[in-house]
Design goal:
The chain has 182 residues and is an all-alpha fold. The protein has a single domain, classed as Arp2/3 complex 21 kDa subunit ARPC3, CATH 1.10.1760.20. The protein is 69% helix and 2% strand. The protein has 6 helices and 2 strands. Strands 1-2 form a two-stranded antiparallel sheet. The chain starts with a helix and ends with a helix.
């Protein structure tokens, strides 16, 4: 049990650290962040339940006012962030981590192409949550939400998914290579 708690705590720290790498985009309220990369990797590495728990704890820490969300001069702090322009993305993190973890539990994290498919599934969940939420905000339409919340980000997010998909099978290979010596 202490190992699981430590793994969840480490997952929260990894997600929070990834959120600090942010780049505001001038044409949308949604900044470019590395957080989806961490969400997908943590979910796949910890599995469905612990990945989900990690992201719920991350959201709770941010809602409580801890500086775990992406730094921003324009996005609201604390719990208000969950109802601001990025709220849909944030609230999709636990589901995305659960799905990537569930697929990893079924061996999808062992080879590049299946790992990529699981990362893309997680990324799709994040985008669906984010764009859906954006489209409900005042002054937004589904078209502007797709333009600012999906099209503006998809290129770099596909690269993040491809890197995450490469990291996980490589980590398994290193792990099994090193543990088989003992």
């Amino acid at each position: 049990m202490p190992v699981r708690a430590a793994a969840v705590g480490l997952g929260v720290l990894i997600t929070a650290a990834a959120a600090q790498f942010t780049m505001p985009l001038p044409f949308t309220a949604v900044p470019f962040v590395l957080t989806p990369f961490a969400v997908m990797l943590v979910g796949a590495a910890l599995g469905s339940r612990l990945g989900f728990a990690t992201q719920v704890l991350y959201l709770a820490a941010g809602a409580a006012g801890l500086p775990v969300f992406a730094p921003s001069l324009v996005l609201p702090p604390g719990a208000a962030r969950l109802i601001g322009p990025t709220g849909g993305y944030l609230l999709a993190y636990p589901v995305a981590a659960f799905v990537t973890g569930w697929l990893a539990e079924r061996g999808w994290d062992r080879r590049y192409f299946t790992s990529l498919a699981s990362m893309l599934a997680g990324l799709a969940i994040i985008f669906i949550g984010g764009v859906s939420w954006l489209s409900t905000l005042p002054g937004q339409t589904i078209g502007t939400a797709i333009a600012g919340g999906f099209i503006a980000h998809i290129g770099l997010d596909l690269i993040k998914a491809a890197v995450a998909a490469k990291v996980l099978p490589l980590a398994w290979k290193v792990y099994f290579t090193n543990t088989s010596k003992y």
